[in-house]
Amino acid sequence: MKVQGIRVLDLSLFLPGPYLTTVLADHGAEVIKLEPPSGEPVRSIGQRAGGHSVWFRNIGRGKKSIVLDLKKPEELAAFRDIARTCDVMVEAFRPGVADRLGIGATAMTALNPRLVYCSISAFGQDGPESRRPAHDLAVEALAGTLSVNLGQDGKPTNPGIPVADVTASLLALSGILMALLRRETTGRGDVIDMAMFDATLSWLPNATGAVFGEDRAPVVKHERQWGGGAFYGIYPTRDGKWVVLGGSEHKFVETLLHALDRPDLIPGASGPPGPGHEPAQTFLREIFGTRTRDEWEAWFAGRDVCFAPVLDLKEAFAGPQVAARQMLVRDEEGNLHIGLPIKFRDEPGQLNPRLPALGEHTAEVVAEARRRLSQ
């Protein structure tokens, strides 16, 4: 597997760091998860299956669990010994906490110059907001993305995906892999300061036109990606469900409006998003309301139009594409797991469904680190 032989020390909790290290574990890395004596909080959050929380099953699989009290000198010494044998360290404390514990980037990279040290925090290690407590929703609020995530009432609503968490996680993963690649040339690791805030802002290249080009906040209902385009929007159906048109290229507009006997709406629906699309939107709302979601799916079959039914999560995971791509995996005990999204032709990843007991590997990992250091 691609990162077999890479040893990762993971001090993070909840989602951004643990998701990142799960991807590494799925592709062969040895991931050592340092948990507080009370355990990773998500061990006890949310619905359970097979004796564990589903959340923990998705971010704890295939890892080793150790418990050390870093405020105790002898246990801090054991931690430092482990860090000396690792290639990557991931932490997600508030800025300053790791330094106070004696495990900050400067101390750890002095101890192990080959270490790739990654800090994930809400706002980064510096700046006026760096010490501000925040999880995903607050970061999205300050990054402006919540202001464009509007419900049917036109008011901001909780996003369906934790955007700040996952963008930071994926960019941190990219940074770690780049640093490991560069280490092959230099022999030295690096320090990564990954802010969820920065990551969220960076994923807006298609949404900053009004701000950068016209020095104004976007009018959400007039922007193509947020419903200002008739062919990039969400429409209710007769049975109280929903469908989407997800592509506004001219060929799709022509194909559908000709099929619905409304070619007169093509010019407006092919123009810039905003008020010019309102006649087509009004018509599409009316016509989609005449059939059920599934009837529309059957009607669109074979037509060259970007169309999709809005599925709930249960329906989505039960779909044939999920099965074909192995994105839902059932282990030998019958528990379900989200599959591996990175698919290599050679050296494919391998999902290890085993979950560690809290602190199960402490003695083993400490002994192994000291054995390596004595060689």
Structure report:
It is a single chain. The chain has helices at 16-26, 54-60, 73-84, 97-101, 105-111, 136-143, 163-186, 196-202, 209-214, 250-259, 266-270, 278-288, 293-300, 313-317, 320-324, 362-374; strands at 7-10, 30-35, 48-49, 52-53, 64-67, 88-91, 116-121, 190-195, 232-236, 242-246, 307-309, 328-330, 336-338. It has 375 residues and is α/β, with parallel strands linked by helices. The model has no long low-confidence stretch (mean pLDDT 95). The protein starts with 6 loop residues before the first strand and ends with a helix. Helix 1 packs across helix 7. A hairpin with a 2-residue loop joins strand 3 (48-49) and strand 4. The strands form four sheets. The protein has a six-stranded parallel sheet with strand order 5-2-1-6-7-8, with helices on both faces. It has two domains: 7-203 and 344-374, Crotonobetainyl-coa:carnitine coa-transferase, domain 1 (Rossmann fold); 232-317, 2-Layer Sandwich (formyl-coa transferase, domain 3), CATH 3.30.1540.
Offer a concise description of the structure:
This protein has 375 residues and is an alpha/beta fold. It has helices at 16-26, 54-60, 73-84, 97-101, 105-111, 136-143, 163-186, 196-202, 209-214, 250-259, 266-270, 278-288, 293-300, 313-317, 320-324, 362-374, and strands at residues 7-10, 30-35, 48-49, 52-53, 64-67, 88-91, 116-121, 190-195, 232-236, 242-246, 307-309, 328-330, 336-338.
Output the keywords:
Rossmann fold; alpha/beta; 375 residues; elongated; 38% helix; three-stranded antiparallel sheet; single chain; six-stranded parallel sheet; formyl-coa transferase, domain 3
